[in-house]
């Protein structure tokens, strides 16, 4: 498995572009957004293009949800590289 990256705010704009760019370079991407659907859509787009992605909804202004984001990424991929 390649490196694992977590991209917060990846449901749109710069975050989405960053997630897609990392996926194109072969990274496994954990997409994240405050709202589930946008992050899920980006993860699906990555997967549809042959990449590896997993979506986790979390509000990064809430420390408890940040912990859940990190835990979820580690549970799915075993580590976070970026």
Unreliable stretches (pLDDT < 50, length at least 5) are: none
Total DSSP E strands: 3
- The CATH class assignment is Alpha Beta
**CATH architectural label:** 3-Layer(aba) Sandwich
Number of individual domains: 1
Give the overall silhouette. Answer: globular
Radius of gyration: 11 Å
Strand fraction equals 15-25%
Order of helices and strands: EHEHEH
The named CATH superfamily? NAD(P)-binding Rossmann-like Domain
- The strands making up the biggest β-sheet line up spatially as 1-2-3
Q: Number of helix segments?
A: 3
What is the residue-mean pLDDT, rounded to a whole number?
98
Major sheet size, sense and barrel closure:
3 strands, parallel
CATH fold naming: Rossmann fold
Gap between N and C termini? 14 Å
Structural class: alpha/beta
Which percent range fits the helix content? 40-55%
Which helices and strands, and how do they pair?
Layout: E1 4-7, H1 13-24, E2 28-33, H2 36-48, E3 52-57, H3 63-77
Parallel strand pairs: 1-2, 2-3
Helix pairs in contact: 1-2
What does this structure look like?
The protein has 82 residues and is of the alpha/beta class. It has a single domain (4-77), classed as NAD(P)-binding Rossmann-like Domain (Rossmann fold, 3-Layer(aba) Sandwich), CATH 3.40.50. It contains three helices and three strands; from the N terminus they run βαβαβα. It has helices at 13-24, 36-48, 63-77; strands at 4-7, 28-33, 52-57. The chain has a three-stranded parallel sheet with strand order 1-2-3, with helices on both faces. α1 links the parallel β1 (4-7) and β2 (28-33). The radius of gyration is 11 Å and the shape is globular. 40% of the residues are buried. The mean pLDDT is 98.
